[in-house]
Design goal:
The protein has seven helices and two strands. By secondary structure, it is mainly alpha-helical.
Length: 185
């Protein structure tokens, strides 16, 4: 909480209210009941004023975590479903499912990153939930690294190198395609 000059120091009569950009936002007792601040905490600072961004940031962080959680769950489900579907079709010991998820995730992340930055207006919590939560859970770079290491450890150097190069090159191409298409819409 920022220290603000007390109302007395500002030459105004003290009152039990929180002042936000010149307006009474809530009574201090109301904030205390909501767990936002105690009267003692506000009085200990020598004032009864709280900057609006303090309350907004606190609420926004709570909302961001909610969007991250929802996006994460949806991203994990999408990754699992797509990986199973691709591996079921290919029935190969080559990790095609992870490759498809990484390439698709690279494309979608680049596409939505530019789209939500340059063309669509989304609130920061929603954008964070989609890009960090949803696509962070959907893309599988850590799985990609582990699968590459396993291929190397099994002595399948050509397969490991092919997987590594294909993931990086196709992921970059997909990301450039996503950037290009999002700007052409």
């Amino acid at each position: 909480m920022q220290k603000w000059p007390s109302r007395t120091q500002q030459g105004m009569a003290p009152r039990d209210a929180v002042i936000v950009e010149g307006e009474v936002l809530k009574e201090v007792s109301g904030l205390q009941q909501q767990g936002m601040a105690s009267i003692g905490e506000l009085r200990a600072t020598g004032c009864l004023a709280v900057h609006a961004s303090t309350l907004v940031k606190r609420k926004e962080h709570e909302v961001i975590y909610l969007y991250l959680a929802v996006g994460g769950v949806l991203g994990v489900w999408a990754r699992y479903g797509l990986t199973r579907a691709v591996q079921g079709v290919t029935s190969s010991d080559f990790p095609f499912g992870t490759l498809v998820v990484n390439v698709a995730g690279s494309f979608i992340l680049a596409f939505l990153f530019v789209l939500t930055l340059e063309r669509l207006t989304l609130s920061p919590p929603v954008r964070t939930g989609i890009l960090t939560g949803g696509l962070g859970a959907f893309t599988t770079f850590s799985t990609f690294i582990m699968e590459t290491m396993v291929l190397f450890e099994r002595g399948e150097t050509l397969k490991a190198a092919s997987y590594l190069v294909a993931s990086v090159v196709l992921g970059l191409l997909a990301a450039f395609a996503g950037l290009y298409l999002s700007r052409k819409l």
